[in-house]
Design a protein that fits this description.
single chain, about 400 residues, alpha/beta, 8-stranded mixed β-sheet, 18 helices, 8 strands, globular
Amino acid sequence: MSTLGIIVEYNPFHNGHLHHLDEAKKITNATTTIAVMSGSFLQRGEPALVDKWTRTKMALANGVDLVIELPIIYSTQSADWFAFGSTFLLNSLFVDNFVFGSETNSLKLLDQVADLLLNEPLKFRNYIKEELSLGHSYPKALSLSLIKHLGSKEYTVSKPNDILGIQYLLNLKRLKSPIIAQTIQRKNAEYHDNALNKSSIASATAIRSTFLKEKNLQKISTVIPESTLALLDQEFKQNRINLWENYLHTLQIIGLSNDKSQLQKIHGMVEGLESRIQEKLLNCRSFFQLLELLITKRYTSAKIQRTLLYLLLNLTKEKVEKINPANGPQYIRILGFNELGREYLNKIKHQLDLPLITKIPRDKPAMLELDLKAAAIYELGFKEPAFIKEEYKQAPIYWR
């Protein structure tokens, strides 16, 4: 039995994801596919368009056999921590193969960069520090440092999936994992593309943007599978489409009712940002406007959204220290499976070092407490109380 591991958000599952999944199965000859998926909130610090249970159904409907939740302490962090938590779980599940999408589609190039970061010569480390001090984002600083250190523009890597891919490879090396990693070309759409084109493959950003603007599922029907369309239609009719705008008023209350010393305790809050947040919260009329007011050369959109999310969750630096994410995920929480996934779990469950969670235990580690708190806050973004989901009552989805 050969296993394939993938790391996903599926926000929502679209034709590009289906291409990645089908190609990954083809090149690995895998019989079982395991997805580590972000839960309520995502890597760029934003709420998922639809909840994790619906996205689990999308995954299972399209050929994933087992879906595991990536704890929020990793799913809402920068690429290095996101990759660490994800690869740690895949390694814990004894996955044989791991396939990720990338813009360059050059495993050799990405692996060379990962090796450089693993060993990190002093000269290279200083290059990165220098570029970051000039106000460049990490991807830009990495790319410029590679060119300086290696003397060739061949090593230009600044695209989001390439950066993530490097971190995946780097963390697999640090874990001394036996997992065989491969990459496939990201097709047609760029990660940040915000408009649909004539292709059947579009970025999740473009799909969300078009759907939220048009409020019409037919506008995106050509770029998502029928199963995704049906599930989105169901959630749309129940007013269970989520976005940052639903939390603006709550953010304003939290941000303005606490003094700056309290805001400074929030995870990810750098000196001076708390004052800027309080000032702009008072003057904005939408979350989009707030984001535009807060973004600077120093503070990227992702950095701002993550910090605002930690504020919403009241995730303090002290709480992060208590959770201690550097030790890795503390459990394997199952969101859903089909018969193949169930068989695989039965095969490995007695070999696992981490507890398998299908029901919320009475005694919960702080990492799981944060997941549950995030899920509850995520649900408060919806407008229809009749359709609010209670995390404690949600059993893993068994897809037949």
